[in-house]
Amino acid sequence: MDSEHIFWITSRAAGVVALLASSAAVALGLLMSGRVLRGRTAQLRVNHEALALATIAALVVHAGALLGDSFLSPSLADVTIPLVSGYQRVWTTTGIVAGWMLIVLGLSYYVRVRIGVARWRRLHRFTALAWVLGVLHGLFEGTDAGTPWFLAAVAAVVLPAGALLAARLAQTPAAPAVPRP
Amino acid sequence: MTSPLPDSACERLAARARRTALIRRRVLVATLAAFALAWGVIAFGGSMGTSTTTASVSSSDGAASTSSNAKSSHDTPSSSFGDSSAAVTTAQS
Known about the structure:
By secondary structure, chain A is mainly alpha-helical. Chain A has eight helices and no strands. The longest helix of chain B is centred in the N-terminal third of the chain and has 39 residues, at 7-45.
């Protein structure tokens, strides 16, 4: 291992952690809002919030560490603004959009009263879309995407979250409320 | 002025705060452990990307003159974020 690779390795490791933490957070969020674990919502919410914050921290490290990499030497704009970087433009942009969405939607929890709780709930559903974009970024651009350990980690955490999301999307919409007499 | 909470309510609140702190600590530890593990796996077992080789080979009847310049680099097929001018051949290390 070379000292010149420290930032590169740190960024990759943080990306993996962001993928795993966001997957777990999405899975818990879907479980919370579903009917499976109704009685344990308070505990799930604390876990969900902590994992969301861990995801945000990992995303900041993932992008920030790249700035220190002497080989790629991207600019701040390259790693924060969509379509600026010329390197794998589609998947880099996908990752940047996913990252910003996860950060903004995650932190919006703390201003949900100001936003309006109902509106915030509607917005919060887009977290699932951000997560899907993040998974695509990891799978199609990630340096470690083809390695057995990465695939095992993805299978352990991403697949269950994906299955929960698919189940949620497949659910038939609830019957319209019958007005009370 | 608010009336003080009964002892049982205080205890329940304190217990909930303890549980919350414990969960947060566990998530933090798990996250740091995952980061350290991923870092170790990548650093000591993973590829740093590709080995970039610039080679010019002239060969006609088996007597070849070869010059090459190889260096280890990341997985970028053509140098850095904006630069794609280098003519290189790459191979996964």
